[in-house]
Amino acid sequence: MQVSIYRYNPETDLKPSMQDFQVEIPNDKDIMILDVLALVKEQDDSVAYRRSCREGVCGSDGINMNGINGLACITPISAVTKKDKLILRPLPGLPIVRDLVVDMTAFYKQYERIKPYLQNDEATPAIERLQSPEDRAKLDGLYECILCACCSTNCPSFWWNPEKFVGPAGLLQAYRFLADSRDTHTEERLADLEDPFSVFRCRGIMNCVAVCPKGLNPTKAIGHIRSMLMERGA
Amino acid sequence: MVTNVISFGRSGLYDWIVQRISAVVILLYVLCHAAIILSTPDMDYVRWRALFADTGMRFFSLVALAALCAHAWIGIWTIATDYLTSRILGPKATFIRFLFLLICLGTIVVYFIWGIMILWSA
Lengths: 234, 122
Fold this sequence. Notes:
The complex is a heterodimer. Chain A is an alpha+beta fold. Chain A folds into 2 domains: 2-102, Ubiquitin-like (UB roll) (Roll), CATH 3.10.20; 105-233, Alpha-helical ferredoxin (Fumarate Reductase Iron-sulfur Protein, Chain B, domain 2), CATH 1.10.1060. Chain A is built from 9 helices and 7 strands. Chain A is elongated. Chain B has one domain: Fumarate reductase/succinate dehydrogenase, transmembrane subunit (3 helical TM bundles of succinate and fumarate reductases, Up-down Bundle), CATH 1.20.1300. Chain B has helices spanning 12-39, 45-53, 55-83, 86-89, 93-121. The interface between A and B is medium-sized, with 20 and 19 residues.
């Protein structure tokens, strides 16, 4: 199989280039892209990529495979290739640290901005803040995000305004705390999102939904935030 | 919260609602005219003039014109702040974007005033 990999070291290279590798897939098995990368690294150990849990939990190995963002560790070859050619690029829109490793600072800054933790001004209870099963169910489809950045780096609005538009991953988490019955800072959270960029730069093209490796729906969460802003403003 | 903006209402929610309501008004206006034109095969200048002599139609046209201008400004502002940024154009971006928005705003204002003159001059 021919594997074409984006190579760029900002310290030594003038511009990025694509390097081709011929990889023998053992027994022609439908292995994961991360395993293909390991086979490439056996040929050239200077190829750089992030990885950790290798089972779709940590979100480290988000890359662009034949044009589709996803986690290399849970994406089999058959899911992204029809012909015998695989093109691997870093997640689009973020600065390159090296090869397939991107600088996620802009992504994390937006995550930090939405204050991704419970804020509650009421007196601390003796044991814990209780939540009804119904209220807890409202967080399903929101808390599962692993911050791999596949969605935000697939979003043109985030490419154009990464310092102003929160992006789908950040907004999914913003709604996760807006929807939490134990959080009392709903008003402040909504006030921080009302400007023309933070939420409203989303044009609903659903690129985020198309690539989320966990099957989550940031567009739906953004719709809920818009509804909450409408109720607050009306 | 992002505050450095010169959008329509300086609020994302306000702009968003205006964009949606104006879209509905424009659609209704287009459908209304399509229906009139299709149901009047022998449309001529006299009938066309009589149509716009009606105060209701004039008022509807004025509302549609205002909706079109607001819709255009919000859309143009969004496009300008997406593509005419310092990430794409470098340090001159703010000046270029401001100039572009000024020209667009001027054009929209001229069209709006011209539209009022056309509708209410007769």
